[in-house]
Design goal:
By secondary structure, this protein is α+β, with helices and mostly antiparallel strands. The chain is built from seven helices and 14 strands. Helices cover 17% and strands 30% of the residues. The protein is globular and about 80 Å long.
């Protein structure tokens, strides 16, 4: 997704004036002044193709994602530290990293907004083995409906391999079936099952692929300890007046850089 649009300053002024009137301000002495600026911000959002597998919830290191269910998508909350692990992990690439740029041009008197997808590396998520317990009563239709690759289907007994089914099957009944060549191990069927034991999934989730690092400028550091106090995973500390970063713990989020008052810590591309 790449979106760009322009908003005239006159239109923005009218909106601000109307809002001030709503706040019981008479607006007679209203003045709107804005200096030139440009702002760049990263946004992480869940796209409608979310399959409710909650892999993102499982792997989020700061519990910043509200889990999905059959009725709603997963939701990124304000606790997000933009480590991008969920973006790398989503089996169906339904979590997007978006670069939001806002630029105000004083001479042309307009504000330009642009939203652009940022490509991220994707870690391995793969099905190793999956097994259905046919003796369980379950919401099999929901499992089939949310499968992103149509690997999970409902079939008559003639289609199934007798060696996989441990119950006596009826002639006019549909039974769950998983095509192992199509299954990607997302876990959506497991997550939305009413019965926790109906489906057993063994999957492989590979390591995170670092494409950013925290750059430390020791000369600028003023030993304020704000980075240590705000690191969500205890990956940074000050020892003898020097910043020590544990790269094995570090999730490459923006908390230390955002709280550093002198710009001694910055997240940069590798």
């Amino acid at each position: 997704m790449n979106v760009s649009f322009i908003k005239q300053m006159a239109s923005l002024e009218r909106e601000v004036l109307l809002k001030s009137v709503e706040l019981d301000d008479d607006g007679d002495d209203f003045q709107f002044e804005l200096d030139e600026f440009d702002v760049v911000e990263e946004i992480i959002a869940v796209a409608p193709k979310c399959v409710r597998c909650n892999t993102c919830v499982e792997t989020c290191p700061v519990e910043a994602i509200e889990p999905a269910n059959i009725f709603r998508l997963a939701k990124i909350t304000e606790k997000c530290v933009k480590c991008e692990i969920c973006v790398q992990t989503c089996p169906v690439s339904a979590i997007k990293l978006i670069r939001n740029v806002v630029v105000y041009d004083d001479e042309k008197e307009f504000i330009n907004y642009s939203l652009n997808n940022v490509r991220c590396p994707h870690r391995v998520v793969r099905m190793n083995n999956i097994k259905i317990d046919y003796s369980q009563d379950n919401n099999w239709n929901d499992c089939a409906d949310l499968c992103p690759t149509d690997a999970f289907t409902l079939e008559f007994k003639e289609f199934l391999n007798d060696s996989e089914v441990d119950i006596e099957m009826g002639d006019d009944k549909l039974y769950p079936h998983v095509n192992r060549k199509l299954c990607i191990g997302c876990g959506a069927c497991v997550e939305i099952s009413h019965n926790d034991n109906a489906i057993t999934l063994d999957r492989i989730i590979g390591p995170i692929i670092p494409d950013k690092k925290i750059d430390v400028n020791h000369d600028l550091c003023v030993n304020c300890y704000l980075c240590e106090e705000n690191c969500p995973v205890d990956a940074i500390c000050l020892e003898d007046g020097e910043v020590i970063l544990d790269n094995d713990k570090c999730i490459r989020c923006v908390e230390c850089s955002n709280h550093c008052p002198v710009g001694a810590l910055n997240r940069v591309k590798i």
